[in-house]
């Protein structure tokens, strides 16, 4: 969860206010603790829904120094071709009882634009976008970033998706460049939350409410 503390999309979907931005994951601030709990519930919802619809959740774990426990250091999440988060609203709200605006932001403001981009990109290559794997992302504990954990699960995922395309949405320039390194190409850039949030995905008004960019990307050969 710490890996997504400053992710613009999570802040936007989670309706996080600027004054509640988490600057330090161990902060005793009640506002930050509340934000951390909300983001954690939101991410748990993503994992649960992925598993419920038959998607793939892969973990990389390491043993503790005494060998009695294991620590999850990396998680990757995939939806198989044709799978979606199309579930009853009551089911989603039961797992993520946060502010209702996230439902509209994810399923109305976000998803249709991404699907339109994917449709155009695949049709240009005479391919069916419903035959593409959806890479929802890889999350690496900050203590283990830069140590090859992301590459480990990316390669594991590509072995599964072989011979089909895979697509994703990069929420930061850093992630965009990392995914480009793995062979993903930019299909289109979108600006989300304009008039609602700033570049960090935090609630804003006026000139500060610029929205934040996301990049729809596809790896055509896996």
UniProtKB/TrEMBL annotation:
Residues 133-185 form the N-acetyltransferase domain. It comes from the Eukaryota. One of its GO terms (molecular function) is acyltransferase activity, transferring groups other than amino-acyl groups. Pfam families: Acetyltransf_7. InterPro entries: Acyl_CoA_acyltransferase (IPR016181), GNAT_dom (IPR000182). This is N-acetyltransferase domain-containing protein. It comes from Armillaria borealis.
């Amino acid at each position: 969860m710490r890996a997504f503390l400053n992710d613009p999309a999570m802040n936007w979907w989670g309706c996080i206010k600027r004054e509640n931005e988490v600057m330090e994951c161990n902060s005793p601030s009640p506002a930050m603790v509340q934000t951390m709990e909300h983001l954690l519930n939101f991410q748990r919802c993503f994992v649960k829904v992925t598993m419920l619809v038959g998607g793939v959740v892969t973990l990389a774990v390491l043993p503790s120094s005494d060998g009695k426990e294991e620590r999850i250091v990396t998680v990757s999440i995939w939806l198989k071709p044709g799978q979606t988060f199309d579930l009853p609203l009551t089911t989603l709200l039961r797992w993520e009882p946060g502010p209702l605006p996230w439902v509209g932001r994810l399923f109305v403001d976000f998803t249709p634009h991404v699907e339109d981009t994917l449709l155009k990109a695949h049709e240009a290559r005479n391919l069916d976008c419903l035959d593409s794997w959806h890479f929802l992302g890889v999350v690496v504990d900050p203590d283990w970033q830069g140590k090859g954990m992301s590459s480990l699960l990316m390669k594991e995922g590509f072995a599964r998706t072989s011979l089909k395309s895979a697509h994703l949405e990069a929420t930061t320039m850093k992630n965009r460049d990392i995914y480009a390194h793995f062979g993903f190409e930019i299909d289109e850039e979108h600006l989300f939350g304009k008039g609602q949030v700033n570049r960090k995905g935090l609630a804003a008004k006026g000139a500060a409410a610029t929205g934040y960019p996301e990049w729809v990307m596809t790896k055509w050969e896996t």
